[in-house]
Design brief:
Length: 411
């Protein structure tokens, strides 16, 4: 059964100076002929152009806030419910609240809720500084009884981190949870603003790798007091304000921790718009790449094994996404819209466009035929920035380099 094609209305471009290119796929492509593919720069490639809360913490595999901003504005109205079954660091949820929508955000990893809740419930700078002054970072403790993280932290820095970690186990109001968010963002990185010796900001590298970095650079971790760094980063994150509006909207929002194939706390037929991005096969190891973050939050790695889908098998990935689409069909209103962002990956030495795989899932009887109608496919075309280039990312050359969003409507 071929996918139903709805009438196409080209979106308004955010950059009218760039030509829009609309292509029709070849009839040889599976079940995707006649589906418009729109190539344009729908949002800017520049960094840090949105609300400061979006940049509270780095997260592997996350999309820019401009992406959900584009689709939320185009396909929903104030007061609508916008959901994300793969919530990550809460980008869709935060932008939904900022635009006056109700947010539903879900993720199999409980770390997602720890990163998202404080951004939806921001505090004031005065509350942040006042609470930091109340916390005892200097409590003595025997580091020999703790996990060895000497390759990352100076002993005095590590002692402060452990004292904050213990404090946050027992203290969980909104101020404490915001402090936790900012502390997570400072655990490792490449500048003096982080707690660690020189490291990677986006991923928690293995201990042995960090030891090699230290040896190569000829350094040992120096002392970094964590209180001043939390305060400095917190002030940057809070600088754009709008707290009262956000907290009011957050009361009507819902954060859940469950498998995307079974989000039982999401009401059937309640969601107006989904903006999401599932894992791209095994391109990112969310468990390994976030081990320091989950350690700090007291989340046991063993509780995550088997819950976060990371597979090199295309067949397994397709079945996982198909089952997720079935659950989305349950929660989305009739006529509601799903914008699912996927990319291109290297699979068996070939470049695989996952939007084409997604079309297959939506179109075939074996998977999700009859649940959704495909509207169009958006391909974000842009020159990558200096930040991307430093990680050796070149557009359309290596890894997942383009945003490819399949827009579908629930039947």
């Amino acid at each position: 059964m071929a996918a139903q094609i709805l009438p196409f209305s080209p979106p308004k471009s955010r950059n009218s100076g760039l030509p829009r290119k609309i292509t029709q796929p070849s009839s040889q492509e599976f079940n995707s002929n006649a589906i418009p593919r729109i190539f344009d720069e729908f949002w800017t490639a520049k960094q840090r152009q949105m609300h400061s809360l979006h940049y509270a913490v780095s997260y592997r595999g996350s999309f820019k806030p401009e992406l959900p901003d584009f689709f939320i504005k185009k396909f929903s109205d104030p007061g609508d419910i916008v959901g994300d079954p793969f919530g990550g660091r809460g980008t869709t949820a935060l932008q939904s609240v900022l635009l006056g929508r109700r947010a539903l955000s879900n993720d199999a990893n409980p770390l997602s809720e720890r990163l998202t809740y404080p951004k939806l419930n921001p505090i004031t700078e005065e509350e942040l500084e006042g609470r930091l002054n109340e916390i005892n970072f200097e409590r003595p403790r025997k580091l020999a009884n703790e996990e060895d993280l000497s390759m990352f932290y100076h002993p005095d820095t590590y002692r402060e981190i452990l004292n904050l970690k213990d404090y946050l186990k027992e203290n969980r109001d909104d101020v404490d949870r915001f402090i936790e968010l900012i502390a997570i963002s400072r655990l490792h990185g490449h500048s003096a603003g982080f707690f660690s010796a020189y490291s990677f900001p986006q991923i928690s590298i293995p201990k042995s790798n960090q030891a090699k970095i230290n040896k190569t650079r000829g350094v040992e971790p120096d002392y970094r007091d964590i209180k001043s760094r939390i305060l400095k980063k917190g002030r940057l994150v809070l600088k754009d304000g709008e707290f009262e509006m956000m907290r009011k909207a957050a009361k009507k929002s819902l954060l859940t921790t469950s498998d995307s194939r079974d989000m039982s706390k999401w009401k059937s037929g309640s969601v107006d718009l989904i903006v999401t991005s599932p894992p791209f096969l095994n391109q990112v190891d969310y468990i390994a790449d976030g081990w320091l973050e989950t350690w700090f939050c007291g989340i046991e790695k063993t509780t995550l094994n088997g819950k976060i889908v990371q597979t090199p098998s295309l067949d397994e990935w397709m079945q996982f996404i198909s089952d997720t689409l079935t659950e989305l069909h349950r929660v989305v209103k009739s006529g509601g819209v799903v914008a699912m962002e996927v990319g291109e990956v290297r699979y068996q030495s070939k470049l695989l466009n996952l939007d084409e795989v997604l079309v297959k899932l939506i179109s075939e009887k074996k998977y999700n035929a009859g649940q959704f109608s495909i509207r169009e496919i958006y391909v974000q075309s842009q020159e990558f920035t200096k930040l991307a280039n430093c990680f050796n990312v070149k557009n359309n050359v290596l890894g997942t380099n383009t945003n490819r969003i399949v827009l579908m409507e629930r039947k």
